[in-house]
Amino acid sequence: MTIREQIETIQAETLSPYATLSQNSRGRDREEPQCDIRPLFQRDRDRILHCKSFRRLKNKTQVFLTPLGDHYRTRLSHTLEVSQIARTIVKALRLNEDLTEAIALGHDLGHTPFGHAGERTLNRKLKDGFRHNEQSVRIVEKLEKDGQGLNLTWEVRDGILNHELELHPHTPEGQAVRLADKIAYVNADIDDSIRAEILSEDMIPWEIRKTLGKNGHDRLNTLVHDVIVNSYDQPEIHMSDEIYQALVDLRQFLFKKVYTNPVAKGEEVKACRMLDGLFDFYMENADRMPDLIPSKYMRSYQKGEVEKDRMIADYISGMTDQYAVTKFNELFMPQAWQVDGF
Description:
It is built from 17 helices and no strands. The protein is mainly α and 342 residues long. The radius of gyration is 22 Å and the shape is flat. It starts with a helix and ends in a 10-residue tail after the last helix.
């Protein structure tokens, strides 16, 4: 018996009957030999962790665009916080931690530079729209590894695709990540907003503080415990009605005070105009200047596998904030004229 098979046997004997076991996976789109050490979902986690799209998250906006400070969240730190919260939940519920971590680490791979401002820009530019959860799946299926994709299991891709609040993952592990995502960013955005001096704990409505807690530690504790208590030995992962409504109310409060706050979002107009300009320039010039866009993106377009606007969105959405600024400067900002020898 291999080490992987021993691990699978232990999981089958110890995990909840509602846990998703790797040996019961619907599998990968392309069959491949099993690892002798790692179960399927652990292998998926490792593939995501080592891919280029994951590394680029460290330089993509979470809420505050290019903040001057070392402690504001980026898309990468948000991803790690989601993973930690989701793993805490599923460990208590005896669900599959490997599957949970793989979904959590991959759920935001498709996010654009400049956060949701960039997503809204690309959604407006593409005739079929742009949604970061769908782009995350596109990355792991088609774009990573120069077009080969990561060949992840169905369960991981399902959790990544359905992590948005209005969607419903098919596995309890995916459902845990879906809630952990909201728990993570609500608390992190409050913390970052307090650091930026655009919010204070006292500004949060009293009814919400009374229900969820008076500070970040208490809120996190309340939300995670509520998920665990209400989901224990249940096939679905959910919160109590009271706590869930308080979370919804807190998100609405943040939309008013933070997500549309001119201090926090004052640079978004510039970011949107910049991505608008990049998109339009590539649309107008990609055919006659194919070297403008990396060959791994151009090949799929030239083969007729993808429309030009989608190919350009693949390229732009993969950019970090700084790389997008650099490309904009290269294309639109005048450069100093030089003569050789002077």
